[in-house]
Write a structure and sequence with these properties.
The structure holds two protein chains of two kinds.
Chain A (H helix, E strand, L loop, with lengths): L14 H28 L4 H4 L13 H7 E5 L2 H6 L6 H7 L3 E6 L2 H32 L5 H13 L2 H15 L5 H25 L3 H9 L4 H12 L1 H17 L2 H6 L7 H4 L4 E2 L2 E2 L1 H22 L3 H5 L7
Helix pairs in contact in A: 1-15, 3-15, 6-9, 6-12, 7-9, 9-12, 10-11
Chain B lengths: L1 H7 L5 H13 L3 H30 L19 H8 L1 H32 L6 H13 L2 H11 L6 H10 L15 H26 L3 H9 L4 H29 L3 H6 L11 H11 L3 H30 L2
Helix pairs in contact in B: 3-14, 4-14, 5-9, 5-11, 6-9, 9-11, 11-14, 13-14
């Protein structure tokens, strides 16, 4: 496989070339990580620290951003706070030190739940439909196959705002605006195109002989599909599912236009976490951190399949 | 009809159910299985994509306004299309979009290809660093774009601080988002940061598809490294690079989320790319008929680009 790693190859780069390349790439990677690093540490700053000049790299960490993210607070007079019974928790104490009291939980957890439900719901449906269709396209003669596949892919390339105009009107008629089911259907439709293309690539790689052998042994086509093809495609199905999940998790345009409250997901919610007098940056950064962590984990899990995912299965390495 | 038989077998042992289902499906020809498998996807896409598209086409010939659903709808013929193509604001939006698309692609290709060449030297740990570099492109452009407004703050923002640190200018003397001259670059910078890894990854695949013996032959023929790059590396990576460029062109032509949160088209309309104009017309001014016509124009453009993209995909696939 890896022909180029033969030690004596004349095309092997010299150690010096390698070292220079490594330095440049690592410097680029570290610079590119700065914004993400800043999100992480801003979430651990107090609001005054977050907007200090010059920007602080050394600071005493605080969970105020996270407390502000999960709660809503009201400002009170020091006298009123003094008249309250002593704070019974560390977060209550933290909030009171800013002359505020906790009024209740914020909308963060319900919004996170919406993102999870809509993300997993649409992923499940898209992968389910996508696996069936991909198998159909991979194994059978379908009339106008290439045109159908192009049609499926082209739906994903449409500008979301342009699609949102009629969807908005349609959902208003069907009362699907701002509902889980409406968003799940929409994201399923967008993701199914990716799922079909990706999974067709994975299923194409499974030799037909496996199923044919199973069918000679008495399996029906459907049994062969379920008992032979599906287990073979499991890795591909998992990778596809993660791609679909990431898309639904990150999607903003449809979410901001078609949800406003009940079914609002995280991307339209996070930018509007505001404190007194503008955006509460530590809370925004805290919310962003909690929002990004799953994606970072998934990216590392997916690293062998990223290339396929971003080229609809065409480039495989 | 089949539900009744299904219900009748619920009490039966699993294997029996399976075999009965199997029996029923044994009769199915491959042809019907193919359609059974493909049809749900097609139906879903017809319902969520094609039906709305047809509706948009119909609306684009009317003066319909979605905020006045009960007002009489009047057909206006092709007036919406004529108005759009002669509207200076639309052309300004197209110019802003072109600036954004051309500069992001130029920079992403340059930096992405450069990085790919370096990573292809296979230094120790290149796999890990590649994954690290890829991170930004997996993240939500909306959520991360929103955080960039904080990095771009004139006094307290980290971006301004770093620029000031290296150039010696006062960090509060320039506003990336607030100034007419810099705002178009503020969105280019964020996009280049997010999507250079995309171009890099595809170029890397291209580089790895070049068999070693070609370079070995060139080495035997004493072709210079420079010559090898122009006659072997570049031509062989080109199909992959085209793929990346086309996809970035399509994505950035319809760019909405990052720009909407970073500048929202401002200041004035200096960063008002096509999708932002469309959002304003459709969901702020509620000129549904007019914006439908605009949407159709964008559809046709993207559809054309997508067609070329799929041809490029198929070319790469054959390698």
């Amino acid at each position: 496989m890896n022909v180029r790693s033969t030690a004596l190859s004349i095309v092997e780069p010299s150690p010096l070339t390698k070292r220079v390349a490594a330095v440049v790439v690592i410097v680029y990677a570290l610079v590119a990580l700065i914004p993400l690093f800043w999100i992480l540490i801003t979430g651990l700053k107090t609001p005054p620290d977050s907007i200090s000049y010059p920007p602080k790299i050394l600071f005493s960490p605080s969970l105020e951003g996270y407390v502000n993210l999960f709660t809503t607070r009201t400002r009170q007079t020091p006298e009123f706070i003094a008249s309250l019974p002593p704070a019974d928790s560390w977060y209550e104490r933290l909030v009171r030190s800013r002359n505020m009291v906790i009024a209740g939980p914020s909308k963060f957890i319900p919004r996170y739940m919406n993102s999870l439900v809509i993300g997993f719901g649409s992923t499940f449906l898209a992968v389910f439909l996508g696996t069936l269709a991909a198998y159909g396209f991979s194994r059978f003669k379908v009339p106008l196959k290439d045109d159908l596949l192009f049609f499926i892919l082209s739906t994903r390339m449409m500008p979301p705002i342009a699609v949102a105009i009629p969807i908005y009107l349609m959902y208003r008629e069907l009362q699907l605006t701002d509902t889980w089911i409406g968003m799940i259907l929409l994201y399923t439709a967008v993701n199914v195109s990716l799922a079909v293309w990706l999974l067709k690539g994975f299923i194409d790689e499974i030799p037909r002989e496996y199923e044919e052998a199973a069918m000679i042994d008495g399996y029906t086509r459907l049994q062969a599909f379920i008992k032979v093809v599906l287990p073979q495609a499991a890795t591909g199905i998992a990778a596809t599912a993660i791609f679909c999940l990431i898309f639904a998790w990150n999607e903003y345009a449809f979410a901001v236009l078609l949800t406003s409250g009940e079914a609002q997901t995280m991307p339209p919610f996070i930018p509007f976490i505001i404190g007194e007098g503008g955006q509460d940056w530590p809370a925004v950064a805290a919310g962003t951190t909690l929002f990004l962590i799953p994606i970072v984990v998934f990216t590392f899990m997916l690293r062998r399949h990223l290339l396929r995912g971003i080229t609809f299965g065409a480039v495989r390495k | 009809m089949t539900e009744t038989t299904e219900a009748a077998t619920i009490g039966a042992p699993r294997s029996l159910v399976a075999s009965r289902v199997g029996q029923r499906l044994r009769g199915l020809s491959d042809r019907s299985i193919a359609w059974l498998f493909i049809a749900p996807t097609i139906v879903l896409l017809l319902a969520i994509n094609i039906f709305p598209l047809l509706w948009t086409i119909q609306l684009s010939f009317t003066n319909y306004r979605a905020n006045r659903p009960n007002a009489p709808i009047k057909s206006v013929g092709s007036a919406n299309y004529v108005n759009i193509l002669t509207d200076p604001d639309v052309w300004a939006a197209m110019q802003a979009t072109a600036h954004f698309v051309l500069w992001t692609i130029a920079l992403e290709v340059l930096i992405g290809f450069g990085l790919a060449l370096l990573i292809d030297k296979k230094f120790r740990g290149h796999g890990f660093w590649t994954t690290i570099i890829l991170l930004p492109m997996m993240l939500s452009p909306a959520v991360v774009g929103n955080f960039w407004t904080f990095l771009y703050q004139p006094q307290i923002g980290l971006f301004n601080y770093i620029i000031a640190f290296f150039t010696g200018v006062d960090p509060s003397s320039f506003e990336m988002i607030g100034s007419v001259d810099l705002a178009p670059w503020s969105i280019v910078i964020v996009d280049v940061w997010m999507w250079t890894p995309y171009v890099m990854l595809i170029c890397l695949a291209g580089l790895r598809s070049i068999p070693d013996y070609i370079y070995e032959a060139a080495e035997v023929d004493r072709a210079s490294k420079w010559r090898q790059f122009w006659s072997i590396t570049l031509p062989m990576v080109l199909p992959f690079l085209m793929l990346a460029v086309l996809f970035r062109a399509i994505e950035n032509f319809k760019m909405f989320d990052m720009v909407n949160l970073l500048t929202n088209g401002g200041p004035g309309s200096t960063t008002e790319v096509a999708s932002i104009t469309l959002k304003r017309e459709a969901f702020e001014k509620w000129r549904t008929g007019y914006s439908s016509a605009f949407a159709i124009i964008l559809f046709v453009t993207v559809f054309g680009l997508a067609n070329i993209y799929v041809k490029a995909l198929n070319r790469v696939k054959q390698r």
